[in-house]
Amino acid sequence: MKAAIYRGEKSIGIEEVDAPVPGPGYVLLEMKNCGICGSDLHSYLGHWGQSTNASGHEVSGVVAECGEGVTNVEAGDKVCVECFSHCGECRFCKVGAYNLCENLRGASGGNHSGFAEYVIAHSPSLFVFPQSLSFEDGAMIEPLAVSYRAFRRTEADYQDTVLVIGSGTIGLLAVAVAKVSGVRQLIATARYDHQADMAKELGADYVIQTPQQDVKEEIPKLTDGLGADVVIETTASAGGFSDALAGVRKKGTVVLIGGYHKPLEVHLGRIVEGEIRVTGSSCYGYSGMRKDFKWSMDLISSGKIPASKLITHRFPLSDIQKAFEVAADKKTGSIKVMVTSE
Asked: Are 253 and 277 in contact (CB under 8 A)?
């Protein structure tokens, strides 16, 4: 089968590899769509290590074969995939915090993931989605679940002003979640015009365009000098963290989400002086009594969040190098770049 393999910094190409066979508890999927995530770009750009297997986790596909003991899905099901596999037995799994599993590993179990014709996935990581949803919709469930969890971690409600730092896929989906949740005021930051336009389309009341505008100067104008009640920081950068601390009010909340690939130099004095609560949001798990994937599936299938609207470019698997080049260069107008089966 064909699989996309990293070949060094800013290089990825198609190779012929043996088709994988699902072991006990695992499933073989025929890939239909797989989005390029910011974490994929970190590997592509050399910020993180590069796997010798096909990467890619924002995947949707069809169950082709089930390994021994799999009972939750069957051949022909349309499915999407959580990016990790959990043990179900450790202290965190037993209390429902399975995204913090002590034995966490990739859903593929060390096999090929989404940027390949066939994908291996651990069966507990699979979610069957409705026939009414397209495979593009199915691939967008994973990033929406990330943003959904981050918003729920803020504990924001209808009284609050929410500031989202960054208008990449995760930031824009956080804007969409905040909007449908009915927050009082919704502000986003964006670096590029096309990101700003999408933030407004998804419900942002105001967009601060950086670096032309300064968060520290603009937020007081929009909040009667108070600051945002909660901030979701999606850029995983020192500048983004600093903007979050500049934009949040005293006793406010900052939720950090994103792939940090190096230590940050950030002035933490305002956290102490303002008694600001800073917390993280790790992928997805349970929010309340349901899994974030289930909440996200409902938001897409109900039409409340048009997640596939973020897809700006589509490339077949054979054009994987071009797909990554476009995804890495936001001047192309890219937001979500989707890789499709041939």
From this structure: yes
